[in-house]
Amino acid sequence: MWDYSEKVLDLFYHPKNQGPMDPTPEPGIRVVTGDVGSITCGDALRLYLKVEEATERILAASFQTFGCTSAIASSSALTELITGLTLDQALKITNRDIADYLGGLPPAKMHCSVMGQEALEAAIYRYRGIPLPVHTDDDSALICSCFGISESKIRRLVRENHLTTVEEVTAYSKAGGGCGSCLADIEDLIATVLAEGGSERPSVAEPRDPVQVKTSAPLTTLQKIAHIQTVLEQQVRPLLIADGGDVELYDVDGDQVWLRLKGACTSCASSQDTLKLAIETRLREQVWPQLTVHAV
Ligand code: FES
């Protein structure tokens, strides 16, 4: 499992402001949503903002997410950070602010803070009825087809977070974390951005927490089955069912886990692969780090 800060664990076990928001509040108040990701591509976040129209102040924020421990904690942290701010003030919140609020995130989990920042921007731009900034559209070249990450998004992450390695780009965006065929392109793009020089924000400190996998006594197969069932029942199936899909545990043999995807999750081969990866990440974090998930 990852070495999370106490704040991350607290917000994971006791998330604040989780759940949908009533879309029809009183006069003078508007509720908008910002969506990032796709449930069939792994992580997904929907952020709700309740905004006082006269002042553009965020009166309340809430979230729904399909993601790992750090995605839930990052989303919860974001809602606490922005409540009470004006929209202009909220637009200045960075993914680094979210990570700092949590006492740091493991480097490989920084993409969760990026997802929060992007959902916030999406909600505010939707509120104002203007197109999203260029970094979120698809006009630039697609660098990583496995995770749908564009050149402009990678450029922005490299500039704003002072990234210098492919591994860092993967940690912040997931780009390169699938088939690996885009790794050379990412490396070239990093070199190009660094050669262009300049950055939009001050230099940031290194992430506080190194990635560590805790070792403990191996689980028995029965214990693994019980833990996997609990994670699936409590965290995965409710979200999939709400989206027309479902999953069931088919078999466990050592560290190999077979899952049967059902409903909408079976609609195409690629969605099965990405969904498998998302569930695998969650099971590795919460059950046993060596687990490998297969779809049957
Ligand atoms: S194209 Fe980027 S990991 Fe596959």
From TrEMBL:
Could you tell me which residue ranges the NIF system FeS cluster assembly NifU C-terminal domain spans?
Answer: 228-293
Top-level taxon of origin: Bacteria
Q: Which residues form the BFD-like [2Fe-2S]-binding domain?
A: 142-191
Please give the InterPro entries that the UniProt record associates with this protein: BFD-like_2Fe2S-bd_dom, BFD-like_2Fe2S-bd_dom_sf, FSCA_dom_sf, N_fixation_NifU, NIF_FeS_clus_asmbl_NifU, NIF_FeS_clus_asmbl_NifU_C, NIF_FeS_clus_asmbl_NifU_N
The answer to whether the entry has keyword Metal-binding is: yes
Sorted alphabetically, the keyword list is: 2Fe-2S, Iron, Iron-sulfur, Metal-binding, Nitrogen fixation
Domain NIF system FeS cluster assembly NifU N-terminal: residue ranges: 4-130
A Pfam entry, by short name: Fer2_BFD
Give the protein's cofactors. Answer: [2Fe-2S] cluster
Q: Which family does it belong to?
A: Belongs to the NifU family.
What this protein is reported to do is described as:
May be involved in the formation or repair of [Fe-S] clusters present in iron-sulfur proteins.
- What name does UniProt use for this protein? Nitrogen fixation protein NifU
Q: In the UniProt record, what gene is named as encoding this protein?
A: nifU
